[in-house]
């Protein structure tokens, strides 16, 4: 596992081009390269009507990201530093953590716990 320090340079929370509610957080590494994480669907199909509705995972995901980075609101993520765990240099971001605390967040594991 490789751990990098990174700065959050951009965030997106909203609907992507297929109408899926999602988020992305773009991080800049110490050497200047950038990589985003996120992309999880934050909504679910409605059981009572056509379309999509909020899902417990979506709010849990947003809350965990905010808590892990150590801010009070989504808008404050930009400019913050965090630690990132990857299995290889070109691999996806697997976990994030607060720059000062050892509280890691694995979004895949969080997603799996809600989608069973």
Explained architecture:
The chain is 19% helix and 41% strand. It is built from two helices and eight strands; from the N terminus they run βββββαβββα. It is an alpha+beta fold. β1 and β2 (21-29) form a beta hairpin. The strands form two sheets. Strands 3-2-1-6-7-8 form a six-stranded antiparallel sheet. The chain has a two-stranded antiparallel ribbon with strand order 4-5. The chain has one domain.
Give the secondary structure arrangement, pairings included.
Blueprint (H helix, E strand, L loop, with lengths): L1 E14 L5 E9 L4 E5 L4 E3 L6 E3 L1 H14 L11 E6 L6 E6 L5 E2 L1 H8 L2
Antiparallel strand pairs: 1-2, 1-6, 2-3, 4-5, 6-7, 7-8
* Quaternary structure state of the chains depicted: single chain
Give the proportion of residues in helices.
10-25%
- Rg estimate, integer Å: 15 Å
Model regions low in confidence, pLDDT < 50 over at least 5 residues: none
- Counting structural domains, the number is 1
Strand tally: 8
Order of helices and strands: EEEEEHEEEH
- What's the mean pLDDT score? 91
């Amino acid at each position: 596992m490789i751990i990098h320090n990174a700065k959050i340079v951009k965030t997106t929370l909203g609907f992507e081009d297929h109408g899926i509610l999602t988020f992305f957080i773009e991080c800049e590494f110490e050497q200047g390269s950038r990589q985003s994480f996120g992309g999880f669907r934050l909504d679910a199909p409605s059981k009572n009507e056509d379309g999509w509705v909020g899902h417990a995972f979506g709010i849990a995901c947003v809350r965990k990201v905010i808590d892990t980075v150590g801010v009070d609101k989504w808008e404050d993520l930009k400019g913050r530093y965090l630690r990132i765990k990857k299995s290889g240099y070109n691999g996806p971001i697997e976990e994030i953590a607060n720059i000062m605390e050892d509280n890691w967040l694995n979004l895949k594991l969080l997603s799996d716990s809600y989608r069973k």
